[in-house]
Amino acid sequence: MYQIKNFDVDVFLSEYWQKKPLLIKQGFSHFQDPLDEHELAGLALEENIDSRVISLKSKKWQVAHGPFEDINQHCKGAWSLLVQAVDQHVPEADELMRAFSFIPHWRMTDLMVSFSNESAGVGPHIDQYDVFIVQGKGTRRWQIGLPGDYSNKVPHPELKQITEFEPIIDEALQPGDIIYIPPHHPHNGVALEYCMNYSVGFRAPSAQELLSSFSDFSLENNLFTQRYLDQKITPRKHPSSIKLQEIAQFKQMLHQAIDSPNCSQWLAEYLSTNNRANKDEEDPSEAYSMEEISELLADGQTFVREPGIKPIFIESQEAENSDFIFYIEGQAFHCPANTAEFVQNFLNSAVFNAENGLPQEICLFFRQTLTTLVNSGYWFPE
């Protein structure tokens, strides 16, 4: 179990989150890498895993994308292997990411893991999202500056770098050290020896992305089909003109869509989608019946949440007799209102065991829900 030390969550959220960078020395004492470079390279061979090698040799940058048949042919000069969403494939990596759950799950994207040789990096650059970087084996020098007007350079079509910047943090990280970098802060990391790094990234959807997704949702569900009405239209001097009250009426139509319960449902579905790899294609298996799940529960079987699963729910669901609803990968699960507290505790636990039995009033419901979650690939009997 990973637990951050030398760290005050309240102080961090009020003084540092999205404001300024922070170095946490020995945030993880006696840090153990959740995987090694050989396991990481093995992931880069997989078809459904996003991986790439970024290298610099003879002042020339190269980017190669997996899956790799022979990864060594790309590891020339100063190189880094980067693999996305490792938390979805390695339970220990998922545990590492859970150490940052003081930020809500819907804000998290994935855990990117890199392995680099000496002098490797991706060049000075700026990201548009927050990131915590954990130092694994080896050491890496990190320089972080303040937001500013920097000139861009593109040494490769897939690499966007910036010119030099004045660092306010310049530190060689040791295993267990953590560095937090807010959006828009220039940074540059250079390996001082063979090293592993773990980047906990956070999503920050743009208004454009939100509007696009909401539009798709409304079309898929045939929502907001009412048309514009203007029963009080009046003559105008110029037929080419649009009156301000007409613009206001169009805006009101959009506001009504955004203020509707359908919008809340869409947003929860959207934020719960984490672009997980389709594991059903890798390991198809027969579905469990509720009777089989019930027998496993009765026998004290442990159920484990799949790596990378991040359930979310809307905080205020207080209407009397209304269902409690949670979301996983865009799928909504409805539960009786009186089960909300039990279900929330279940969702927050990576491992579940009903060794003390289930409350009688939720026993049938929970067995049904757990059966659905297992057959959806979100939990599995250990």
UniProtKB/TrEMBL annotation:
SUPFAM superfamilies: Clavaminate synthase-like (SSF51197). This is RmlC-like domain-containing protein. PANTHER family: MINA53 MYC INDUCED NUCLEAR ANTIGEN, RIBOSOMAL OXYGENASE 1. Residues 92-219 form the JmjC domain. Its cofactor is Fe(2+). One of its GO terms (molecular function) is metal ion binding. The keyword Oxidoreductase applies. Keywords: Dioxygenase, Iron, Metal-binding, Oxidoreductase. InterPro entries: JmjC_dom (IPR003347), NO66-like (IPR039994), ROXA-like_wH (IPR046799).
